[in-house]
Known about the structure:
single chain, mainly alpha, 10 helices, sigma factor, RNA_pol_sigma_r3/r4-like, cytoplasm
Amino acid sequence: MNVASEYLQLQREDADxxxxxHAPLVRRIAYHLMxxxxxxxxxxxxxxxGMIGLLEAARNFxxxxxxxxxxxxxxxxxxxxxxxxxxxxxxxxxxxRKVREVAEVVRQIENETGADAESAEVMKRxxxxxxxxxxxxxxATSARLLSLTAPDDGDGGxxxxxxxxxxxxxxxxxxxxxxxxxxxxxxxxxxLPKREQLVMSLYYEQELNLKEIGLVLGVTESRVCQIHGQAxxxxxxxxxxxxx
Length: 244
């Protein structure tokens, strides 16, 4: 065996060891995500996608990276799972359509008044009941509709600007655009009502699920779902310029 073959063999062995050692990380991330997703999502599908992400991380990891392998692998595993969720979007087109309609009314009201759109006014203009309105907010949360840049083609296939975790995979122009989007999104979040800001922070930065956030705020899980959904709809309305 020549030097090149020996080196490749060592690389394969190192990758296999990394995969075996960090396999539990895949299940941990999968079940953490499941706490924030509808019961219709199969955890087995997430684990399978995550294992592919772990394999790719093990093959591509180099010791000159600033992050540890576990940190790097966690990013790739989570990214692979989110890609799988986007690919197998379970959300009916009607849900995306209703959320777009609510967001458009929110945008109109806020442009007219210069203030946060009140739920009562949104319901009045749409001619829907509080029950119907709250269902749209719940659907906005479960559908992961914080996708403010995807083309609005009516197919419902949408991703989240918060999902992009591995900037190494982006080209220079993509990275610039992504950074600009993140800045615009952060600015838009800072304009939300305080309670909506808090829910967004706990959900996306602290990665608490709705039940845990409810315990923090002292409200029911369904109420957290409504606040979260309202924040997503409001952001969708305010980030319209970033949509394709």
